[in-house]
Amino acid sequence: MSADPSPARVLRTLNRKAHRFLRRFQTRRGGVAVTFALALIPMSMLGLAAVDFHRASTVKSQLQDALDAATLAAGRSSATTQTGITTVGVNVLKANLKTFKDVTLTSSTFTLQTDGTVVASAKATVKPLIADMFLGTGIPVKADSSVVRANNKIELALVLDNTGSMASSSKLTNTKTAAKSLIDTLAAAAARSTEPDAVRISLVPFSMTVRIGTSSQLTTYKSQSWMDPSGTSPINNEIFTTNNATTTQFANRWTLFNQMGISWAGCVESRKAPYDVQDTAPSSGTPSTRFTPFFSPDEPDVSQYNNDNTWKNYSTSNNYLSDGLSNNNSNKNWWLRQGRVQKYNTTSVDTSGGKGPNMGCTMQPISRLTTSYSALKTSIDAMVATGNTNVPMGLMWGWHTITPNAPFADGKAYGTDKLKKIVILMTDGENTFGESSNPNDSAYIGLGYIFQNRLGISSGTESQRRDKMDARMAQVCTNMKAKGIEIYVIGVMVDSYTAGLLKACATDSSHYFDVSASSQLNDVFNTIAGSIANLHLAH
Description:
Elements: H1 7-25, H2 32-76, H3 82-97, E1 103-112, E2 117-126, H4 132-135, E3 139-148, E4 153-161, H5 171-192, E5 199-206, E6 210-211, H6 215-221, H7 253-260, E7 267-268, E8 304-305, E9 311-312, H8 334-339, E10 367-370, H9 373-381, H10 391-402, E11 419-427, H11 462-482, E12 486-492, H12 496-505, E13 512-515, H13 521-536
Parallel strand pairs: 4-5, 4-11, 11-12, 12-13
Antiparallel strand pairs: 1-2, 2-3, 5-10, 6-7, 8-9
């Protein structure tokens, strides 16, 4: 008899034995009544046997369900050894079978194969009501199951708002907790994958600009061709002048840093359109594709010559050098004083209160794609709230961290099999390029001053400036999605107008989360982490 006999086969066996049983009691003179009475015994036994095998069929289905759940648990666990897989599988299987009485698990195996498949089998016996009188043992049942562990890969950019407004309502504090929880979830999912480096994550804190590296990284970056060491990007020509206020003079930002003895803090400026919203690799043949170090100019010594031949005082926030000019009429020009390259040739720089060419570059640096999850969480803990909102730039550098193109070229090629590129954007406010009460008409941000026309306008109301930044943000989102990048967006306590823009940026409506209180952030990040792990790290 096979280890797992079919009900039909066993019933045939019972029928044969029942007939032999009857023949032992029948006599040649036996009457019909005696025969019928005796026949009731095997008929009852057959009925009970049928009940037994119905129970066995039910238990077999229950064993299959329990084994499927145990195999799935083993496959989803962080166990990477045969012993670990077996321990998880057996424990879950036994727990699932506890509620089934009269069922004895006789054996089980859980095997982790080289391709990541977890193959499992289990055998059990069902205590019968009557069948063991004929079979001599419990009714055996068996089940088999298998689960394929993940072998997909993820490249994920966490683009997190670090603007000054994030300091309120515990927004930044709750963001840190939520982002670290997401990393833990994806790290656990990566541990279950058979692929090395299954989940690589980058971190991009942003405000009015982005800081692209640590001190040690910056030493290397400043000499790279993509960072424009020779100062050929046209951005270098937009502010600095000779003593003739109408003539521009080429000014390499690196040279100005060196002349003042000031180290570059690592912030950068947006490239000139259209490269500000593209991941086009920098090239020497197209200087506009190169990146320019953030360099906040020294604003004049709070004065300008007016048509009525009087001095007018203006407010300044970053006056860190002497203009080096007398106050005669020929020198009473804001633009001449601000962009005069000669004055940057001194080490007498007033950096009090954060002033200087790096003013505003105080956010946490970018963390490039990595599997060092503990280091990522350390960087998240170090994030600080500072500056105003420049979402397009944050998004763009999130993209730069996962693209296969320079500057970092850390991402694998677009279209790589079983690879998904994902960006998670979290922000609490609208894009900002505020006005100021001096001829610059704005603070200096990653887009320079408004008069530099980097947005297609050289002046305008704050609303008009925001609209231009919103348009650039929308274009970044469109360009990323065209490359197959999946975008999740979280709007934290934003108005309806901003919510609409952010929702349009997301891959679809299910990828947008409107958070009305920062306390909800942990749940939202966990939901996204679960979605990524379930949809992209499992079959």
